[in-house]
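Postdoc handover notes: sequence design on the structure in folder B. Input tokens:
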């Protein structure tokens, strides 16, 4: 068995690892969009570091675009095999990939329209279209958690619950050659313990090799409060005291469901003030249906809540907005309210309108509820800039800008350490740290080594390792 790190090596996005079995059968674990590259490349220029036609199988750990976003291109460039994932991952990927294709087309049209005549042909084209997403979706087949599945002679795979997002899986690949078995486990993205809706990650057992994410390998989450307490604090400060507007940028898949469920809990406890709440994201509406369709994957608290109240995401005063009406728009700009909208990093999407409408209002708060990459509008807001350009216009910042990591869907340093420690048996030969920037990966390696855990590697892009038992 051999592993090649084709993406998310010393960086967070673009997850893509290739496992080659002894008979040459090639498995790709994830095929995600590399955000660092996407900015500069058009669909014509994008290339894979292998021939897509040589890949026999893709295993998709979860639906996030940095893990799934290059699948349509892989298929368009000649991949003929199947894509294995859990059922919720299939549903959420469908929503996310179609949304991604739409956004790319919209951005292309806007840039094309703005570009001077002689530069129009240089405008980067979308990496893929809706048609390519449809073809890719037809290749997806589902596998439940904890069911071993033989993919070729002497090799079986198993999906294990990873937390993080509904349907997110860790992947174990086990190959037996001449009665010698090698087991490699990929964490995919891990979740946190005691998440609002989904269960804790389940560590993989009896591994020879482990490929672990270490997004926050050098960082502890700062918020020690429960999500309910934390959100209520912001509601009291902005809604109760100031009668202002609380604007929460949030990813439509995962983050929005956690926030709405926490608001729903506050409502049923009688703690939520009488205020209108808008969830302004068509993608969030579709994704919430997927969450509602899979009660079997909820944790104990969410199951108990569902049994008692009949719905995880519905309560009076909450309005899901698919198509924005004039009336909604008027209400959102005229009265005290809470608005949850995408995108989480405030780059594009309807949230930009809400930020724009409220940024000069000293009674408003913009509460950033997730990671914001450098250069994004969310990042610029958090860095304290007093003058912000949105869609080509400058705005003075008078609103309150704040953040919380209470809804983070990735484990922090201690949580990753504890996960890896649980997998660490005398059988484990090597641990590969990926899906993190270099400082985070190095700090996790140091933490593990100080605890006596050896064989930790930080692979470079396109590094290959022979995995021997
Ligand atoms: Zn993820």
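Designed sequence:
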């Amino acid at each position: 068995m051999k592993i090649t790190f084709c993406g998310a090596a010393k960086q967070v996005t673009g997850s893509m690892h290739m496992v080659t079995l002894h008979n040459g059968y090639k498995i790709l674990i994830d095929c995600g969009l590399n955000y660092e590259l996407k900015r500069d490349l058009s669909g014509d220029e994008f290339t894979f570091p292998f021939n897509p036609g040589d890949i026999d199988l893709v295993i998709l750990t979860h639906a996030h675009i940095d893990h799934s976003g290059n699948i349509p291109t892989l298929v368009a460039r000649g991949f003929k095999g199947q894509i294995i994932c859990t059922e919720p991952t299939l549903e959420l990927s469908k929503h996310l990939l179609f949304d991604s294709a739409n956004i790319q087309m919209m951005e292309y049209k806007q840039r094309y329209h703005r570009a001077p005549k002689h530069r129009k042909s240089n405008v980067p084209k979308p990496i893929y279209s809706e048609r390519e997403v449809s073809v890719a979706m037809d290749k997806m087949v589902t596998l439940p958690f904890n069911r071993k599945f033989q993919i070729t002679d002497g090799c079986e795979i198993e999906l294990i619950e990873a937390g993080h997002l509904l349907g997110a899986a860790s992947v174990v690949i086990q190959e037996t050659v001449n009665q010698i078995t090698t087991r490699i486990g990929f964490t995919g993205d891990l979740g946190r313990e005691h998440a609002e809706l989904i269960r804790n990650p389940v560590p993989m057992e009896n591994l020879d090799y482990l490929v672990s994410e270490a997004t926050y390998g050098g960082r502890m989450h700062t918020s020690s409060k429960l999500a309910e307490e934390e959100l209520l604090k912001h509601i009291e400060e902005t809604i109760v005291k100031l009668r202002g507007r609380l604007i929460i940028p949030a990813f439509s898949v995962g983050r929005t469901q956690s926030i709405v469920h926490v608001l729903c809990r506050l409502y049923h406890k009688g703690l939520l003030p009488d205020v209108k709440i808008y969830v302004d994201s068509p993608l969030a509406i579709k994704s919430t249906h997927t969450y509602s369709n899979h009660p079997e994957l909820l944790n104990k608290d969410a199951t108990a809540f569902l049994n008692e109240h009949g719905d995880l995401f519905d309560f009076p005063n909450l309005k899901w907005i698919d198509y924005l009406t004039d009336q909604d728009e008027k209400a959102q700009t005229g009265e005290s309210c809470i608005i949850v909208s995408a995108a989480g990093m405030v780059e594009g999407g309807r949230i930009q309108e809400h930020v724009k409408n409220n940024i000069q209002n000293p009674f408003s708060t913009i509460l950033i509820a997730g990671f914001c990459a450098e250069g994004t509008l969310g990042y610029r807001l958090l860095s304290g800039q007093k003058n912000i350009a949105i869609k080509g216009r400058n705005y003075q910042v008078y609103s309150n800008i704040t953040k919380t990591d209470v809804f983070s869907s990735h484990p922090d340093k201690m949580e990753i350490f504890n996960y890896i420690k649980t997998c660490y048996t005398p059988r484990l030969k090597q641990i590969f740290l990926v899906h993190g920037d270099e400082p985070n990966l190095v700090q996790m390696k140091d933490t593990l080594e100080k605890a006596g855990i050896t064989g930790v590697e930080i692979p470079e892009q396109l590094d290959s390792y022979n995995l021997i038992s």
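Context for whoever picks this up: Residues 385 and 413 are 29 Å apart (CA to CA). Don't rerun without checking with the PI first.
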